[in-house]
Amino acid sequence: MSKVIFGQFYGFPIQKAVALMLYLPFVWIFLKGLVVKKANKKILWKLFNLCIACTMVGIILILTVSSRGGVEELVLMPFQSFIEGKTNRDLRRSIFMNVFLFFPLGLTLPFALAEKWKKKVFITIIFAFLLSLIVEFLQYYYQLGRAETDDVICNTLGTAIGTISYTLERKFFDKRKYIDNYF
Known about the structure:
By secondary structure, the protein is mainly α. 78% of the residues lie in helices and 4% in strands.
């Protein structure tokens, strides 16, 4: 089952993944406005995002740990896969899909965190970085694939890109008066 999910994810068209990464931040801002304004339920929005963030952690673990074969390779040189990717189209796809895999975590986690945590974007990015380190450690330790520094870089970058929705929402759309007039 996990190998099927793995194949479907890494076979996902890159053009559609790019489109999702461009559109979803704005869709997320719009959805937040609808849920918070129409239902007047901030807690509903937080729970929704928490459920998706937790689901994404599970999907990440399934795709990166449980669906891998037995190779033990450790690549600690940063940007090595980028260099190899110049001549290897499949590797370029893999690099992009590592970014795309962590994008939803960045999209949802900042909205799920408690209001008292002022540095939500920073916390989200650090969480993704640590999750990615754990995944790479598990891949190496249990011989589940190629453990790479570049995967950590790409995963963290994907999360950072995902946090754009939260950053945009806080910077431009979170003015209570503006939201009331907009939605």
